[in-house]
Amino acid sequence: MSKKILVVIASTRPGRLGPAVADWFLQVTAPTTTELDLTIEVADLAKVGLPFLDEPEHPSTGIYHYEHTREWSRRVQAADGLVFVTGEYNFAMPATLKNAFDYLSREWAWKPCLFIGYGNTSAGSRGVQMARGVATSLRMLSIGGDIYLRIADDLPDGTVISKDSRTKYARSALGQLARAAEVMRPLRSEDEQIVPATSADVAELVVLQRACWVDEAVANQTLDLPALHESAVEVEAALHEWSVWVVRSAGRLVGSVRGKRGGEDWLIGRLMVAPDQRHRGLGQRLLAHAEAHAPGDATAIQLFTGARSTGPQALYQRAGYQLTAEGSPPGAVGLRKSIPAGRARQNSELNSTAPVFPSR
Ligand SMILES: Cc1cc2nc3c(=O)[nH]c(=O)nc-3n(C[C@H](O)[C@H](O)[C@H](O)COP(=O)(O)O)c2cc1C
């Protein structure tokens, strides 16, 4: 499967060597890129133009107030592996690279990385060592096999001297990076964790609800759907009445579901996935997650959807639900699934990623 490699140029000062080093790497590895079906993108931090970290929230929340952060998040999130081209400033990585690291969190996670260091006597190795520690703390995997260039020997006039052995080494390093990116792919897909919603999610939940229920309004030929009208205050109030979970991708809220007890049953509602994020299993994961939180003594799970909402009905039926005529509001249908005896557990025992019983 095609993989995206992001080459990050760390230095930003006028007259820097960073772009020349990156150009050399891109040029000599071009044949490998085609062979391995890699797409290479360059993120030159001088052009990315991040200010010193100015986000109020911790990056692990994925809540980004500024467009420059969202853009950086999208670019890093899209990468399967990273190449950091970095010089050494005062025995350390340039502050611009550390700043670019600090902006994000889960976008870096479970991605392999390779360093190309350059400098004077140390050939940039002390800067790389420092950057490697930071990369590791962000759950990147430094695959080793890094490339080091001594400025006086390897790029005396500002361009990297061509050498067969170095070209071979660079191609092999990129090949290893691509292999690691492939092997680590399943870890990356788990990074979109389903977590309890908080007040900070309310604004995006309101928007997501509306985006998701437009289809339902069209399919059912009605605008009389609460999800289309609820205010932020009402959505916030629901956080107290229901257990609500959300999932973010690259910082953006892309899915949600909620559950609460209703008599003997566990009621599930508001299962939603952003229209552009559908057909990759998020809806099933959210449904399984909500099912897994059914109280230990609940005997069945119940949910409702539009009478003409064929897509959602098919999803629920695939997950083992059966249509029921009981208790549906006008224009809606109920779906129900029994909880097999002895399968349900108390919430406190639950592993949030493991459904108590399979959803299909
Ligand atoms: C602020 C500063 C500090 C530097 N400190 C080191 C150093 O500790 N070790 C080293 O080998 N080179 C050091 N150098 C020299 C750099 O290796 C060299 O200038 C290199 O070209 C920097 O990368 P850049 O051109 O992409 O900015 C330093 C350069 C600058 C501007």
TrEMBL record:
Domain of life: Bacteria
InterPro entries xrefs: Acyl_CoA_acyltransferase (IPR016181), Flavoprotein-like_sf (IPR029039), FMN_Rdtase-like_dom (IPR005025), GNAT_dom (IPR000182), NAD(P)H-dep_reductase (IPR050712)
PROSITE patterns: GNAT (PS51186)
Biased composition (Polar residues): 345-354
Start and end residues of each stretch annotated as Disordered: 327-360
A molecular function GO annotation: FMN binding
Protein's name in the database: NAD(P)H-dependent FMN reductase
